[in-house]
Amino acid sequence: MSNQFSQHLKQWYPRRDEQKWVLVTIYKIDGPSYRSVGAMMLFNDMGEQFGLLSGGCLEADIQIKASQVMVSQTSMTVCYDANDEDDMSFLLGIGCGGIIHLLLQPLGSHNNYLQLPAVLEALEKRQSFILLQKITRDGESSKATFLA
Fold first, then answer.
1. What CA dihedral angle connects 102, 107, 112 and 115, to 10 degrees?
2. Residue 62 pLDDT
3. How many Cβ atoms are within 10 Å of 36's Cβ, its own excluded?
4. pTM passes above 0.90
5. What ranges in 23-112 are assigned the alpha helix state H?
6. How far apart are CA 3 and CA 90, in angstroms?
7. Could you read off the pLDDT of 69-107 as tens digits, one per residue?
8. Long-range own/partner contacts, residues 65-72 (CB < 8 A, 24 or more apart)
């Protein structure tokens, strides 16, 4: 995770209970992509976005899907295929030519904020850590595990 995500977490943390939030993570890439596997972005119910997962062309569509996750409080996976002329990412002009798989997860006290407070603390202390996010076959995320 970059220092930039650390800054996004610092903006999120004091407001974590004031809005609904969704964490979006790239979990798989086939072909070229603007960001690597593990890149993360935060969305809230005020329409704010913290970070980028593409060159800026997918974020509006991801915001719509993040809003659905905020309402349902259920994780979902999304795939954008820039090779497929019928896929939304092709129509949006993603430009990278790859396939990007995203995991969208609601953030809240009910799921211990997916361990992001521990991630923020480790980043501030410049400690090594591993954040494991479980994705089931149906695309649901059941938990995140933090290993220091």
1. 50
2. 95
3. 8
4. no
5. 59-72, 88-92
6. 30
7. 999 999 999 999 877 665 554 445 555 678 899 999 999
8. 65/104, 66/22, 66/24, 66/104, 67/43, 69/22, 69/104, 69/105, 69/106, 70/20, 70/21, 70/22, 70/43, 70/45, 70/106, 72/106
